[in-house]
Structure formats: C-alpha cells, structure tokens
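User: I've been going back and forth on whether these two constructs are worth ordering. Before I decide, could you fold them both?

Assistant: Sure. I'll take them in the order you sent them. The first construct and its structure tokens:
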Amino acid sequence: MIEQIREKARELLESGELDVVIGYAEGSDPTRTTPIFCRKPEDTDKLVLDGRCVNTLPAYLNKRHEYPKKGWKKTGIIGKGCDIRAITQLIAENQLKRDEVYIFGAECEGVVAHPEKWDGSLHEGNCASKCSACDVKIPLDTDFYPGEKPEVDRSGPYMVSAPALATLVKMDDEDRFAFWRDDFDRCFKCYACREVCPHCSCNICITDRTMPSWVDQAAHTKGVFGWHLTRAMHLVGRCTGCGECTRACPVNIQVDLFNQKMKEVIQESFDYKSGYSMEVKPPLITYNTDDQETYIR
C-alpha cells in the first residue's frame, strides 16, 4: 500500500503537479513517526504508513499556519480516514479549497494509543479507543487510493468509543463539575490542544488578545475554565474527533470528552455529522428557517 503511494507521490512531484507531499517518516525513536514535507521526488522514499502514524496532518493545511506556503500551488497529503474527515470539514468551512489539495487515501486499521505502547503491531492493549468505533477505516473523498475502494455504509450515528464519556454523562451536575475541576487543576495553559487541532482556525486566538481581554490568561481556575470552555464551544458542530487534543496534553487531561458529547447533541438536533460533507455547512455557523427552536424557553 505505501509503495503505491510513494510511487504516485514521486510521479506527481516529478511532473510538477504537486509542490509538496505531506506524510509520515520514521522518527528518531523506532516507536514513533514524524511528519515530513516531501518537496523532492526522492523524498518520497522516506514515506511510511502504519499504526504509529498518529499525528493529524490536516493541521498543516489550516490557514492559521499560513497555508499555502509561499510558492506552493498544490499540496499532496496522505490521509487516514479520520484525517480526511478533518480535511472535508476545513473545505466545508471555506478554510481550504478542494482544488488546493491532492489527497492520498489508504485503508487504516487504527493507530496506537500512545507511541510508547507500540510493540510492532496493533492489538486490544495498545490501539487507540477512537479506532474501535471508526466508520472511516475506508476513507471518504480521495484523489488516489491504492487498490479498489469498497463502498461503506456511513449513515449510522456517531458511536461513543470513550468509556470515560459514558461514565461522565451518568454523573450528577455536582460530581461532573468536580471531575472537570480536578482535571483542569493540572492545566498550565500550554495550548498544546490548540496547536494540534485542525479546526482551531482563528488567526489570533481569543486567549492571545489583550485588548480587549476576553479570557483570563493566567493558569488559575478562572483562566483555565475560561479557556477550555471557550475552545470547546468554538468546536461544537466542527470537531471531527481526531482526539489529538487529549493525546497532546502533557498532563493527560481528557480534553476531547466534551466535544465527543456535543457531536451526539448536534447530530440529534440537526442531523449533522462533521467531516462527512464538503457542501453541507456546520449548523451553528448557518441559519435555516427549519431549525429546531427547542432551546428557546
């Protein structure tokens, strides 16, 4: 599979159809891979694709990261199904044009929960929980797919794969608040969750604005709650569930639990699943006279 992708990527770089191909290469640690930007045809020999490829590459396509880079006309990117969902959402939100990107898709059996758990194969003990309920192991929209791509039914609801979410939902309000208070007590506002998110797209984050100052920048209870709740609300109806925010958190805060729950709420309220259509806009950034008004009391 990766050999076919390497061959196609080399061909497109040689012809000048692509200026760069974003993918994965071996890291300095054998349990890890690292993002790579292939600008020369020979760079494609370094491309790898296996269960260690956990980074969400579409974050590099976000306009916040000054994409496209100076001189780039068209970018190739290797995408697992969940990555392509993120690309689809970027296009739906006009953060990216479809003709700006060439998508190399491949079937994915899952990724490792944390690189240090990689032992050469994926199994129940090391596979990320988000992969157990994944319905895009065969990716959505692609420009190149090695082999024949089978049809997959994706009409079902989002499936909750995090046991912690089910437990959290059953708590009463006081216990749930205590859960988040204890989790957020560890946060020192490094903003790793923001930096890895493909959908944190503000050119200047609200926490970096000082005039006016909307969110307290200090890493105390008020500032931390203000930051996480603001970011979570900005992602309602937009998060595609890559889980990178939680994986990147250096103090293991389960940042993505709120958005996992809100994905269910948005689907129930608006029959919308983020990352499945380039044409349908997220419900909270559009207006429809047929929208439900059950939230009005």
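The second construct, handled the same way:
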Amino acid sequence: MWIADKWQDFELIDCGDGEKLERWNRQILVRPEPQAIWKSAKRHPGWSNPDARYSRSSSGGGNWDKRSVPSQWTVRYNDLTFLVKPMNFKHTGLFPEQAVNWEFAAEEIKHAGRNIQVLNLFAYTGGVTVACAAAGAAVCHVDAARGMVSWARENAKASGLEKAPIRWIVDDCAKFVEREIRRGHRYDALILDPPSYGRGPSGEIWKIEDGLYDLLKLCAGVLSDRPLFVILNSYTTGLAPAVLGYLLNLLVASCFGGRTTWDELGLPVTESGFYLPCGATGRWTAT
C-alpha cells in the first residue's frame, strides 16, 4: 500500500461504523466512509462535536450540517496550497491520499533532465496539476466540469502558480484526446482519473469496467516518443490495483518498455495506527 503519511494540515483521526473523522487544517469533519465496516469506540470528542457532518439520506444523496465550518478554507501540503469547500455528495474538493501520486509525479519531472509536457485528464480540482507545475512541467488540465476547472485555477493561484504554463481546458476528455492526436500534439506524461460511472456529451453511458481499456488505448496514442510516466487511478469498488497494472502493461509497456507498478492508496488512522484503503493506482515509468 502506498501511504500518504506526510500531511500536516490533514489527519484521518478515526474511522468506523461507515464513517470517518477527519481534521482539515483546524476544521473537524465527519463524512461517510463505506470501506470502514468495522466498529469504532468513537472516543475522540470530534465524533460528537464536529465542525461539520455529512449525513446520508434514506431517499438518496445527503446533506451537510455545517455547525461552525466556513464556506471555504485552505490546507497546505509542503509548498502547495489548496482550497477546501464542503460540497454535495460529501466531497471537499481534495483527495488527500493522492499526495503520494503528487510526490511521485513531481520527482519524475524534477529528475527527467528535460522539459516535460503533462496531460492530466478528468483532472478535477487539480491536485496533481499543481504538483506537476510546481515541479517545472507544462501541464494541460482537462475536465468536463467548468466549476472544477475554475476551482483548479484557484488552487494554482493559491500555490503561487497563476503564471505557470498550465492550459485550462473544459471538454470531454476522450474527445479532447482525439483532437490532440489529429493535431499531432504529444505529451511526455499522462495522468487519468476516470469516474466509475457517468454520461458523455451526447448522453451516452460510461461504465469504467466497459470503457477503461478503450480509453487508455486511445490516450496512449497521445504519448510522445520518449514518455516519462503514466498514472492511472480508480476509486471503483472491486477494481483491483492489479487490473490497472495489467492495462498499463498491455497498452503502454508493450509499446515503450519500462516498468509497471500498482497498489492500493492508503491513509494512516491516528486512533488505531492502521491504514484506511482509499482507491487504487497503477503507474508506468520509462525506467
């Protein structure tokens, strides 16, 4: 398991009974966590008196009880700064376990010895975009949701990277890649974090188990002659990390050689000393 254990402004305090207790800077949140199927004694006072709690509704969805939490605030990770905002569907705009991928990408870029062009697809609020730009890469950030791209720009600005070479694109990711291939544009690094389920621009249904192979095959076509790395993320229940590794071996390593690794992502739990699994990642590197 790849553990994101270098946070100062985030802490997974405890989890259990389908919930997790977190500290985001000074704000204490309780949010649903379906992986936490075990019981917790819930001794920490934050359980009974959080700054905000997200509760699911029996009819679907849910809502925040924001007792004293601001509408937004910042958290820092090393030299990076991100805006946190409690959103619908329990989200905060940041997945802290992804810090291990931010560090991986940044180190690859810093040691490449050349200028690196990064394509970040399904890029959300731009955690890895900001990390890559801070490491010196030029980044193309693509997401179909205009609000998420605007938020990502705010994160770049908060990190002092408003003038960094980042292209902000609001578009369907697959359609954008198709056009980039026709234009002859190529990238040295590729990052994908596709959803488990969604609808395309014409209403077509996307299911990751049905579409991921074709999507990665398409995206591999936008890689340069000397690609540096590929990161493939998934939060789909039941999709094992080894599946991501298998796809990367088939569609990237078979063309460029290199090395493929894969694992779960995890966060340390302060109260128990154990680790909460938080999705899966596959990585391909040229060396």
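Notes on the second construct follow. The two ends are 21 Å apart (CA to CA). The first helix runs from residue 99 to 110.
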